[in-house]
TrEMBL record, chain B:
Source species: Flammeovirga pacifica
Protein name: Ferrous iron transport protein B
List of residues binding GTP: 12-19, 37-41, 59-62, 123-126
Sites where the protein binds Mg(2+): 23, 26-27
Residues of the FeoB-type G domain: 5-172
Gene3D superfamilies: P-loop containing nucleotide triphosphate hydrolases
Transmembrane regions listed in the UniProt entry: 284-307, 340-364, 419-444, 464-483, 517-536, 653-674, 686-706
Amino acid sequence: MYNTSNMISLDTLPIGVVGIISEFSDKVVGSRLIELGLYPGKRIQVVRKAPFNGGLYIKSDKNAFAIGLTEAKSVFTTTD
Amino acid sequence: MTSKQIKIALLGNPNVGKSSIFNQLTGLRQKVGNFPGVTVDKKMGFCQINDEISANIIDFPGTYSLYPTSSDERVVLNSFSNPSSEDYPDYVIYVADATNLERHLLLLSQVKDLHIPVVLAINMTDLADKQGITIDLASIAQQLKVDVVAVNGRNGEGIDKLHQSIIELINGKGDNTSHIYIATSKEKKTIDQVKEITDQKLSNYQALLWAHHYNELPFLNESQKSSIKRITSENEFNYMKNQIDETLSRYNSISPIVNSSIKIQTQEGDSLSDKIDRIVTNQFWGPIIFITLLMLVFQSIFSWASVPMDFIDESMSTLNEFVKNTLPSAWYTDLITDGILSGLGGVVIFIPQIAILFFLISLMEESGYMARAVYMFDKIMAKFGMSGRSIVSLISGGACAIPAVMAARTIGNWKERMITIMVTPLISCSARIPVYAILVAFAVPDTPVLGGLLNLQGVAFMGLYLLGIIATLVAGIIFKIILKADAPTFLAMELPSYKMPHWKNVVLTVTEKVKTFVFEAGKVIMMVSIVLWALASYGPGDSIEKAEELAKTEALQKGLNDIQTEDYIASKQIEASYVGIMGKTIEPVFTPLGYDWKISIALVTSFAAREVFVGTMATIYSIGSAGDDIAPLKDKLTGAVNPATGVHEFTPATAFSLMVFYVFAMQCMSTLAVVKRETKSWKWPIIQFTYMSLLAYFGALFTYHIF
Ligand SMILES: Nc1nc2c(ncn2[C@@H]2O[C@H](COP(=O)(O)OP(=O)(O)OP(=O)(O)O)[C@@H](O)[C@H]2O)c(=O)[nH]1
Ligand SMILES: [Mg+2]
């Protein structure tokens, strides 16, 4: 269903580029993100990075989220 | 009049306005308890629904689903999956955010499957209007088979309709039989088998939750747990996969309902929150703004609070004076003034700091700013076992550990909260300043350094503060290693849109914090201060009277004037009291640190509060009447020579050793009382007292020997 060839982890998604969530490699983080409404198929965008190498500021629909850098490594997205 | 008492739960995702609606429903008829076995706040309130029906309303902590990842969320699961729990509700008011319905209906779909009658309150309708979102309530109600009410948690709009819906629920309207999630056949088998191991009547979804969480459900006994373990492994129950599949399947049912019921006039461009965040969470400006705000918080509890605190101080001593002059001079007058009233003063004095800190904190929480602070600082604080929110506690700790420890309440993760509470008192608070001041003035020369930019005494002061900060962070790392986590720590959270703080919620938070401090921690503080008073005023037999007689004759011989005589008597009395005896008894323990019995006495009395050290030393050195002026005490200490040996009693090495001792020692009964109240057990304050005392002892020992 998704094109896996261009799948990249969220921490490597360039700022401002819209990605589509495709899968999670960490189940705990994955289930929390799903509960937050960030489930596979949702469009998501990295807006900025936190100071001191901290987490990512994410937007999806009109909502904003904070995701830690390690946590972001376990989220995979595709870009079109 | 027949009256019926029912239990209603307020449930919903974090930050949807549950507490605001709770405040609308109950007003000031609220009290705070805690859920069984955990330190999570349970806010309960009373609401008269109509003439016949009164309701006990419980404001549950916000949770995203019935698959918990923190102790806050676990509370919800424990109460909702156990029909015999004391918190199991008869009815649920489910609060959802109108601006983000899809995600908020996930937990609702789970609650519906529990078959507890529920009404859906769609909150933040004002924000939805602004964003051009229109919601077809009837369509949602019909498709989800629930009663739907639009409300506004801020101005109370729709609350009367909510009352009406609750009455209808009670009258049996509402559907409690349908299932939103259809279990797979394997799950169905598990459900049927789990239902058999209990006499309770479980809904299917409750049985499924037992299968998922049996290991962490405190109400199951060991044999039930092992039965479920057997059942799940027989049915090849795959926890993570089942959970994710269930959640996605729920979205599959919810999404079409939401899409067919709401209309969004899409707005172009960035929202106000986006614009604010561009600056406030900026890599460079974000931390600067946050630190500036925290400095403001610090400044306000450190110096602005001193105005009301001085007023309380003066009023208490006026009252004290008045009682002393009105009542006959007898032991019970002393008990009232020096025991009870000064204990009461010791409680009331903290109210301004607590009120101001929580006023500012609730502004930060209410506005949505606190979530940004967590986003920016979580990474750094995680290194020390704490959360981004902990910074507020640590900075506040620089003024006073008491409100700072209370502020740790909002840290969701148990381990992070515990570490914050355990290490915050290592930050040098304002009560240490008078102690540092006298010791630094004594031991450090007033010479300029760095070409007059600073002086050596200032450098010493800074060194003491720095030592406290380093100890705080190191202790954090150590506790991070020792303490077992009850839930994984990870950062994945929503950044809510900014909102104007609502005054009613702010006022209620402040009142609640002050109330719990005064009535819960206050009891312990009163008791300890009465005991300390008794120990300092009484001695075995007539030792105090004898000491007074002897002191009077000696004073006559030395030709002291009236004030000197009084000071001299006070010094001999405290020496003869139980505290004096305790000081002399523990002296050998402190000799290696360079302390004699006089300092040991001051260590005992300053357990009440660190600043008492200065007053006690002054009393012992017969200059009790000098009040707050430290110069006479400094001179006394410089001149004090042991009559037997002829060496100085108080050397710079002793002073440095004492400084380090006070940086580390848990010399504050009020903080211990608050830690007891916040952790709901004596275990944590005892651990804290022990580790800080050991740190203080060995730190001071080391210091004494290098100087
Ligand atoms: N604009 C608007 N703001 C609201 C409304 N209801 C609540 N708020 C605000 O939303 C924020 C969160 O409200 P709370 O009542 O603390 O939410 P909660 O669900 O109790 O949050 P947690 O207990 O943290 O899960 C506060 O700033 C409220 O003032 C509403 O109807 N409209
Ligand atoms: Mg709340």
